[in-house]
Specification:
Layout (H helix, E strand, L loop, with lengths): L9 H7 L23 E5 L6 E6 L5 E5 L4 E5 L5 E5 L11 E6 L5 E5 L4 E5 L5 E5 L7 E6 L5 E5 L4 E5 L5 E5 L7 E6 L5 E5 L4 E5 L5 E5 L7 E6 L5 E5 L4 E5 L5 E5 L7 E6 L5 E5 L8 E5 L5 E5 L7 E6 L5 E5 L6 E5 L1
Antiparallel strand pairs: 1-28, 2-3, 3-4, 4-5, 6-7, 7-8, 8-9, 10-11, 11-12, 12-13, 14-15, 15-16, 16-17, 18-19, 19-20, 20-21, 22-23, 23-24, 24-25, 26-27, 27-28
């Protein structure tokens, strides 16, 4: 799948496909030391927007992007939401932000899919933007790399790219054509791992730019979200196959089927409890849930209070709480599971 120039609608993403849009849990919180009981709270979000990626920020708050409203949002642990508008220069197109990640500089970095830019927002709300070589590349997922730079996927350009804190960009072309990369995560092996939605593969790139690609057993599974697990492996969602996948640093893949049919798993993130958490937001099945999978493959699902909530992206906070975005246009919400 890929985005059109105007960026795809929420319906198109949810049916076919999220960012893992996940940030690794702070290493100060040892995996497995936090218990999550399954209590879900939904906070009212911005009205009229489409909520995409979400991440735990360095300031103790949770940050998210608003695709159709061209804003970056922040929600406090108590549920107070503040929004920051992305600059709109004269005759400029909509930004349509998608991915967001915490950078090593204490700021948040995000992708602007429709403009072909990378944005940076300070915890105070000050925004800066950096142009990419190709304005039509549609940057999507983003993560902090082991080299002090930010790494991101370019969905239409079929590339993986890195941007320094000063804004210098380097691009690397993916070997497989029409891979349509979406999510990207830093592995514990010192490399970057990403999903190739279009060709059913998981990709790996070293900080120096060397690629390896691993075909999945379910070729039409459409891998979407990806996150580094506490077990040293990478975990990912297979949106069309209703599976969670695990790939070792050497490329060995194991797939785990979800109990719910037509679940449509999207985002995935590591929790401080030592497990992986993911969203189930298929439009063909309104019984949307948050799922948990242990490193051994045991799956538990938690139904959401709101029917057809369309959960999209998810992140783990250092205090053990799990936060996620809900994409219902008539009632956008930020969810909390603890």
């Amino acid at each position: 799948m890929h985005f059109s120039r105007g960026f795809c609608s929420l319906a198109a993403v949810a049916v076919l496909t999220a960012a893992s849009f996940a940030m690794p849990v702070d290493s100060a919180t040892a995996a497995g030391t936090v218990a999550i009981g399954g209590k879900i709270t939904e906070f009212p979000g911005p009205t009229g927007g489409v909520l995409r990626s979400i991440v735990s920020g360095p300031d103790g708050n949770i940050w998210f992007v608003e695709d159709s409203r061209d804003k970056i949002g922040r929600i406090t642990p108590s549920g107070k939401v503040t929004e920051y508008a992305i600059p709109m220069p004269p005759r400029s197109s909509s930004a349509q932000p998608f991915g967001i990640a915490a950078g090593p500089d204490g700021n948040l970095w995000f992708t602007e899919g429709a403009r072909g830019r990378i944005g940076r927002i300070e915890p105070s709300g000050t925004i800066a933007e950096f142009f990419l070589p190709d304005g039509n590349s549609q940057p999507t997922g983003i993560t902090a790399g082991p080299d002090g730079a930010l790494w991101f996927t370019e969905n239409l350009a079929n590339k993986i790219a890195r941007i320094t804190l000063a804004g210098a960009t380097t691009e690397f072309t993916i070997p497989s054509a029409r891979a349509y990369p979406f999510s990207i995560a830093a592995g514990r092996d010192g490399n970057l791992w990403f999903t190739e939605y279009g060709v059913g593969k998981i990709g790996r790139i070293t900080p120096s730019g060397t690629f390896a690609e691993f075909a999945l057993p379910t070729r039409a599974g459409h891998p979407f979200g990806i996150a580094a697990g506490p077990d040293g492996n990478l975990w990912f969602t297979e949106n069309s196959a209703d599976k969670i996948g695990r790939i070792t640093p050497t490329g060995s893949v194991t797939e785990f089927s979800l109990p719910t049919r037509n679940a449509g798993p999207l985002g995935i993130a590591a929790g401080a409890d030592g497990n992986l958490w993911f969203t189930e937001g298929s439009l063909s099945n309104p019984a949307h849930k948050i799922g948990r999978i242990t490193p051994a493959g045991a799956i538990t699902e938690y139904p959401l209070p709101t029917a057809a909530a369309q959960p999209f992206a998810i992140t783990g906070a250092p205090d053990g709480k799990i936060w996620f975005t809900e994409n219902r246009k008539d009632a956008n919400r930020i969810g909390l599971l603890q």
